[in-house]
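Aim 2 progress update. The chain analyzed this quarter is reproduced below.
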Amino acid sequence: MVCVTGAAAPGPGGRPVFDRSSCIGCGHCAAVCPVDAFHIGTAFTGAPSTDCLPGLASTRRSVRLFEDRDVPRETVMSLLETVGYSPTGTNAQGLRIAAVGGASRVRGMLSDPLRRLLRILWNTGVLRMAGFLSGRTALVKRLVSGEDLVFRGAPLVLFFMVPRRNPTWRSDGVIAATLVMMRAHEMGLGTFWNGAAEALYPLAGRWRLPGTRGCGLAAVLCAGYPAVRYRPLPPRAWTLIDLSEQASGTGERPEGRI
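Predicted structure tokens:
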């Protein structure tokens, strides 16, 4: 049975029976039907080449130094096309990408309001205490003084917003952001995941992002043209807990950097 909900099932004489009320629009039926009985408006062009993926993964790294030039809107649109192919739990879809583009726009809409908020927290003593307790007073002072340690001068900031009604909304947004990250690397753009902006989002008046009501923030990706040429990193350490039948011994075989 290909259909994940049972909306499409074999009927009398081999003809499919379709229950539209159970369909979630995932397109699995159309993807595998040998006679194109289920039409979704796309043509099969053969299996895509995956040779480039290991190269992209092994040469991509976080970029935090950007050239002083904006990313053209047509480039941003091309970058985000991959979101349309990003999977979502139960095919809920509905991802929303709030794109703040242009260095001056990023400063006026994101960096400057954040700096004002941090100064208020510093003057009330809250931020002073946080810096003291964390042992990062020097870092906090740099933030309050106006140094852009959050957005790093990135000319493009992407907020990956997903409706909270989606059962796997946070994972949906992270997957979409990962696809955009890899697409950016392919296009010659550098990116970094902005965990600081994600953590500060609830405190910064939600940075007045329109069209995101009812959505949760899954990821923040900053992008731009790299100011320097980066060397790729060596593989990160990781572990495989092999529980397959082919595993020897107890079935648990940790292997790092396979």
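The mean pLDDT is 86. The first strand starts at residue 8 and ends at 10. These observations will guide the mutagenesis experiments scheduled for the next reporting period.
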